[in-house]
Specification:
The protein is an alpha+beta fold and 323 residues long. The chain has helices at 54-71, 78-81, 102-108, 110-115, 209-228, 235-238, 268-273, 288-301; strands at 7-9, 11-23, 27-30, 36-38, 40-42, 48-52, 117-119, 136-138, 142-144, 147-164, 172-190, 197-198, 203-204, 241-252, 280-285, 302-304. Helix 1 packs across helix 5 and helix 5 (209-228) packs antiparallel against helix 8. It is globular. The protein starts with 6 loop residues before the first strand and ends in a 19-residue tail after the last strand. It binds zinc ion.
Length: 323
């Protein structure tokens, strides 16, 4: 386990296998007869397997992260305060935000900083009615893979549901609703070095270390919550049963990448653990308790690294273990 010392986290990944029973977390629309179409993915060998999109996981992470940020007084921009998924792109029509800069967005909004945004560029209108707008963007610091069911370890049951029409004459509508169960592999990557950083220009914008640590802790807490309490589509009546969790958290402590290896492979935990060295910490887990304990230790003892060119100037945090 992590000691009482603080650890610098440059980047981390969570590679895990999760078992959900009777869910419909991610669907691919309907075919016109009210039947939901479960999302599917072909694997490299042509096997078709059940899947849940990363988009839905990212959306729910962002929604919960906003709540965690507000709880610890991390500022949000007006768009994120209103849970507008466009984030900074929704600010351009506000009179207070005519002079929008990346510095202002990153300083004034933890969610735009963590989940990214895109303000498109625009040329000035020839009649002078609109001014030129510069492109501003930041890539998300948290990235989610598809959840892919292990071949041979997923099933689907078609449930018949009825819905009453608005009047007696409408009668009852018969609907087919599939519910699925399976063991899914998912990877999450979180680039903590990018907190408060203009990642295009690789420039530190939020140079208050305490504020960066608060954002980092909220991102980790939200990741922990979203693994332990699955969110997605149709949870109002098909809240999944979480019945198993195992995997490995990989922390890269120096500039570089945290390795990702899929839980589709049976020996993924052993192989990830074998990567451990002075720059790479690995925390395997086989239960929800071990996962939760590892995440709590990280929340307590890890701090986000600084971009390399800022190590000497901005503050005293070194890129390696500190006492
Ligand atoms: Zn925002």
């Amino acid at each position: 386990m992590i000691s009482n010392n603080l650890w610098v986290c440059y980047e981390m990944s969570i590679n895990f296998r999760v078992e959900w029973q009777a869910h419909s977390l991610s669907n691919a629309g309907s075919n016109g007869s009210n039947r939901l179409l479960p999302r599917r993915q072909l694997l490299a060998d042509g096997t078709e397997t059940d899947a849940c999109s990363g988009n839905i996981a990212k959306h729910h992470h962002a929604v919960l992260l906003a709540e965690h940020f507000e709880a610890v007084s991390i500022p949000l921009c007006p768009a994120c305060r209103n849970r507008d998924g466009r984030r900074a792109a929704a600010l351009i029509n506000l009179t207070d935000y005519k002079e929008l800069t990346i510095e202002r967005i990153l300083k004034e909004c933890g969610l735009c900083d963590a989940h990214g945004f895109l303000v498109t560029s625009k040329n000035a209108a020839s009649d002078g009615s609109t001014e030129t707008r510069q492109r501003l963007s930041k890539h998300s610091l948290v990235e989610f893979s598809y959840a892919l069911a292990l071949p041979g370890h997923h099933t689907e049951t078609t449930q018949i549901a009825t819905r009453n029409g608005s009047s007696k004459e409408d009668g009852q509508m018969i609907m087919k609703m599939p519910s699925r169960s399976g063991q899914y592999s998912r990877c999450v990557r979180y680039r903590s070095v990018g907190i408060g950083v203009d990642t295009d220009k690789w420039k530190l914008v939020v140079n208050d270390e305490e504020k960066r640590i608060l954002r980092h802790q909220a991102i980790l807490r939200t990741l922990m919550d979203s693994v332990l309490s699955p969110e997605g589509a149709l949870t109002a009546t098909m809240l999944p049963h979480l019945t198993g969790l195992n995997g490995a958290i990989v922390i890269r402590t120096t500039p570089g990448r945290a390795a990702i290896y899929s839980a589709l492979e049976p020996d993924f935990i052993t192989l990830l653990v074998s990567l451990e060295d002075d720059t790479c910490r690995v925390f395997p887990f086989t239960t929800i308790t071990e996962f939760s304990n590892a995440m709590k230790e990280l929340i307590k003892h890890s701090i986000p690294a600084l971009p390399s060119q800022n190590h000497l100037g901005a503050n005293k945090v070194s890129p390696t273990k500190i006492d």
